[in-house]
């Protein structure tokens, strides 16, 4: 298989060097080598790829979901919980673009309002994780010492607990509401954020530019904020996006099990759940289909944005 | 190696202890106590005091904890307030269902992910690789609660190939059991396939660039032998580790499909207990599932030290 061997071999120094030889000086061989792209460990070409159509599509989809969720009150939508018994279980039509459910509620309206739950839990949860776990990780990775050992041990113990069981147990005792679920999932995110950001902070703490800053007499807070933080941001952004998707999945799972925001408040998870009850899968599959589709597209978009940023920042998948 | 295992074992004990304390505190630190539930209309101060004494809830917390833990060690996690079934019995009947679901889904995931990754990594960024990478990336966005209803709508309600609900124990009717297990297992497989494929693919691409592969090729070994014996074997370790970490999300998956397909597994029991505020059942199941999860991680670590001695040094 000479072909793919050549492709794979471009990781060698020759392949890398060939890319730096100016075009004019290039021999035929060098040109050939330049054309076969150098690969990183993912098998992606090392040169910067454009983000591509899918990336912008994903951004646009997330933007549409966020905007419609924010502007839900202003948009010309029916009330999400208003049921018109003359219009039950309709297929998509001019009056109800996505149809109605078995109680005659407008599915588009419920979908838009339901997005709020997913987005709030996902993004606010990650912000909670970032503020506490991120700060702790940044400092702990830079300072090292006993604080680092202690925090690291605690995070190890917390992460040993299967999150979904812990969340269900707490929700069952504390009661399910948007605030509770957001707080619980936010707190569950803290050790995750801590570990990822600590690892990244640690890897920069010993680098020459940090040592140089120390030698010049920079204060610790200045080093953390001006030298380490900017370097940690790529990993943080990428990991945060993946975590947003993860939290949306957990909230959806809870909602599907009837353990999230109580009915009749719509959320995508409880809409899917409602759509599977009472034989509705055969009589009115739209109820389940729209939130399932929206959930798939939202998760896919967030994952794709995160993955493309990871490739751009050149972060190894293993780090996350 | 003994030292490493001892350290990991100590961690296991500490983590299990902390889990037991947390699970115990859950019931006691949060507002309300079970008396309200049990007494119902008879909820007077006098009745309440008697019941608290009967249940031992008037003792100091640490004392209650030791009683509870001692009983747990003797296999007694209490009984359900509602149907007076023992929590151990609920766990014993539910566990086979959940474990079978997880095993079948993992077998499916490996059966799809491993061959696909071996093919894709042979020619990175060629059509086969691009298609499988894109497709598995889509699978990442398909959590069980999205896939399962769609599978039911299409294959159970629409085509009628599989039952929409139900469970038959495997020792009663093997064929029927597997028939009922197929849809729920597929529903929780999607994410695993994506995780394993992505990991194995990037691992293999790195491995295939190493000198010993070139060496094997120049010795004239067949491609099949190179892929399986030389390339796949070192990557299979990280696959095992990923499988261990993945169990966490699989547990969530079994909860969803057990609820949807009405399968009497642990997740089904847990969700019902939560809905009925059956605290001891919630407490018992959380404790056992969490500790089983921790022990499983330990076992995987143990296997690791045998198959890949490099781990111990890290």
What does the secondary structure layout of this molecule look like, with pairings?
The complex is a heterodimer of chains A (320) and B (314).
Chain A: H1 2-9, H2 13-18, H3 28-35, H4 52-70, H5 107-143, H6 145-159, H7 163-174, H8 178-205, H9 208-215, H10 220-256, H11 268-276, H12 280-283, H13 286-313
Helix pairs in contact in A: 4-5, 4-13, 5-6, 5-8, 5-10, 6-8, 7-8, 8-10, 9-10, 10-11, 10-13, 11-13
Chain B: H1 2-29, H2 34-39, H3 45-55, H4 61-73, H5 87-122, H6 127-139, H7 144-158, H8 174-207, H9 211-218, H10 223-260, H11 266-275, H12 279-307, H13 310-313
What are the key terms here?
heterodimer; A: 320 residues; mainly alpha; 68% helix; disordered N terminus; B: 314 residues; 78% helix
Task: Write structural notes for this entry.
The complex is a heterodimer of chains A (320) and B (314). Chain A is built from 13 helices and no strands. With 320 residues, chain A is mainly alpha-helical. The radius of gyration of chain A is 25 Å and the shape is elongated. Helix content of chain B is 78%, strand content 0%. Chain B starts with a helix and ends with a helix. Chain B is mainly alpha-helical. The chains are: A mainly alpha (320), B mainly alpha (314). Chains A and B meet through helix 1, helix 7, helix 10, helix 11 and helix 13 of A and helix 1, helix 6, helix 7, helix 8 and helix 10 of B.
Between the first and last Cα atoms of chain B, what is the distance in angstroms? Answer: 11 Å
As residue ranges, the low-confidence spans of chain B are none
The topology string of helices and strands of chain B comes to HHHHHHHHHHHHH
What is the succession of H and E elements of chain A? HHHHHHHHHHHHH
Structural class of chain B: mainly alpha
Radius of gyration of chain A: 25 Å
User: Roughly how much helix do the residues of chain A carry, as a percent range?
Assistant: 55-70%
Query: What's the main sheet of chain A like?
Result: none
Oligomeric category? heterodimer
Structural class of chain A: mainly alpha
Shape of chain A: elongated
The description of the largest β-sheet of chain B is: none
> Mean of residue pLDDT of chain A?
75
How many helices of chain B? The count is 13
Summarize the amount of helix of chain B as a percent range: over 70%
Low-confidence stretches of chain A: 1-38
User: What is the beta-strand fraction of chain A?
Assistant: under 5%
Number of helices of chain A: 13
Largest interface, C-beta closer than 8 angstroms, per-chain residues: A-B, 59 and 69 residues
């Amino acid at each position: 298989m000479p072909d793919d061997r050549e492709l794979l071999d471009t990781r060698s120094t020759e392949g890398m060097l060939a890319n730096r030889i100016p075009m004019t000086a290039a021999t035929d061989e060098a040109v050939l080598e330049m054309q076969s792209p150098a690969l990183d460990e993912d098998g992606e070409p090392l040169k910067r790829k454009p983000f591509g159509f899918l990336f912008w599509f994903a951004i646009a989809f997330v933007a549409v979901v966020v905007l419609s969720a924010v502007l839900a009150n202003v948009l010309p939508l029916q009330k999400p919980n208003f049921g018109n018994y003359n219009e039950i279980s309709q297929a998509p039509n001019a009056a109800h673009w996505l149809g109605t459910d078995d109680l005659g509620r407008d599915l588009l309206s419920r979908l838009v309002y339901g997005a709020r739950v997913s987005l709030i839990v996902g993004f606010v949860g990650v912000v909670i994780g970032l503020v506490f776990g991120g700060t702790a990780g940044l400092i702990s990775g830079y300072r090292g010492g006993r604080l680092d050992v202690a925090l690291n041990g605690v995070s190890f113990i917390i992460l040993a607990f299967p999150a979904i069981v812990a969340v269900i147990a707490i929700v069952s005792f504390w009661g399910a509401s948007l605030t509770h679920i957001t707080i619980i999932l936010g707190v569950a995110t803290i050790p995750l954020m801590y570990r990822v950001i600590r690892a990244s902070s640690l890897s920069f703490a010993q680098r020459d530019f940090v040592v140089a800053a120390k030698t010049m007499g920079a204060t610790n807070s200045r080093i953390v904020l001006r030298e380490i933080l900017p370097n940690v941001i790529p990993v943080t952004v990428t990991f945060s996006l993946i975590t947003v998707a993860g939290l949306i999945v957990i909230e959806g799972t809870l909602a599907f099990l009837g353990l999230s925001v109580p009915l009749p408040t719509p959320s995508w998870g409880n809409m899917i759940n409602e759509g599977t009850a009472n034989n509705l899968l055969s009589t009115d599959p739209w109820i389940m289909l729209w939130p399932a589709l929206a959930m798939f597209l939202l998760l896919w978009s967030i994952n794709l944005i995160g993955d493309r940023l990871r490739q751009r920042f050149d972060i190894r998948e293993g780090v996350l | 190696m003994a030292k490493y295992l001892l350290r990991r074992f100590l961690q296991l004990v500490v983590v299990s202890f902390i889990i037991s304390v947390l699970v115990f505190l859950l019931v006691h630190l949060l507002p309300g106590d079970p008396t309200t539930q049990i007494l119902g209309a008879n909820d007077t101060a006098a009745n309440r005091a008697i019941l608290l004494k009967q249940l031992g809830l008037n003792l100091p917390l640490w004392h209650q904890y030791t009683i509870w833990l001692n009983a747990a060690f003797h296999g007694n996690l209490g009984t359900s307030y509602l149907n007076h079934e023992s929590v151990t019995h609920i766990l014993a009947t539910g566990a086979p269902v959940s474990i079978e679901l997880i095993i079948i889904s993992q077998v499916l995931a490996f059966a799809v992910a491993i061959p696909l990754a071996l093919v894709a990594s042979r020619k990175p960024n060629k059509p086969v690789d691009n298609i499988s990478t894109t497709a598995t990336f889509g699978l990442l966005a398909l959590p069980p609660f999205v896939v399962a209803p769609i599978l039911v709508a299409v294959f159970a309600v629409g085509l009628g190939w599989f039952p929409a609900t139900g469970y038959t124990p495997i020792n009663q009717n093997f064929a029927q059991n597997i028939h009922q297990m197929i849809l729920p297992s597929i529903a929780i497989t999607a994410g695993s396939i994506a995780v394993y494929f992505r990991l194995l693919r990037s691992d293999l691409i790195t491995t295939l660039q190493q000198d010993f592969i070139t060496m094997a090729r120049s010795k004239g070994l067949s491609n099949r032998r190179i892929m399986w014996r030389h390339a796949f074997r070192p990557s299979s370790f990280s696959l095992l580790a990923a499988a261990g970490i993945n169990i966490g999300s699989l547990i969530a998956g079994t909860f969803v499909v057990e609820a949807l397909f009405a399968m009497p597994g642990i997740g089904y029991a847990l969700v019902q207990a939560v809905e009925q505020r059956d605290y001891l059942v919630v407490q018992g199941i959380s404790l056992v599932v969490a500790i089983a999860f921790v022990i499983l991680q330990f076992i995987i670590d143990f296997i690791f030290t045998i198959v890949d001695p490099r781990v111990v040094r890290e």
